[in-house]
Amino acid sequence: MIAFDCTLRRSDFTFEAAFTAEAGITALFGASGSGKSTAIRLIAGLEKPDRGRISLGETVLTDRAAGVFVPPHKRRIGLVFQDALLLPHLSVEANLTYGRFFTPSAERRISFEPVVEVLGISHLLNRRPETLSGGERQRVAIGRALLASPRLLLMDEPLAALDQARKQEILPFIERLNAQFNIPILYVSHATEEVARLAASVIRLDQGRVVAQGT
Fold this sequence. Notes:
It is built from six helices and eleven strands. It is an alpha/beta fold.
């Protein structure tokens, strides 16, 4: 379970939100500028809140009052953004295995072959990122995040840069991730159709506040 309660103040925006998310796919839903990506960055450790506490299961990731802040590379959280951010000089296979270098051998519980099979990318392994379609690049980015054996997968508008055909290509793969690998997913989107299809529960944000949460 993710337990989140944080405040972050900027010159033109105050984010102050509290929520919990159980196993499965939970959507952070709201218009652009509502604070969805801010929540993701705080959970990932890419920003520190002015006040607050974030825990994942029994592990406290951030607690400003207690002086706790686990650095991003030690949080064991997978990240998938709008842009796949693949390494252009590496093959698809090398991109996929890159994240595993940061995971201790004893904690690598997700194997290469099942990820490649679920994402349908076995025929792409020897290719370079510049030869892939947008949908293929995103599938590789998802695979790279999974192969780091994360305790949580954060997906920040992963389909926003794709056309409708590529979105329909990737949605079935995302649906299978949680069932196949049993990793909780926090999915950020402002697209109603994506949220309705993927999420078991929804946290709605507006102007940096949680305004609704439920199924």
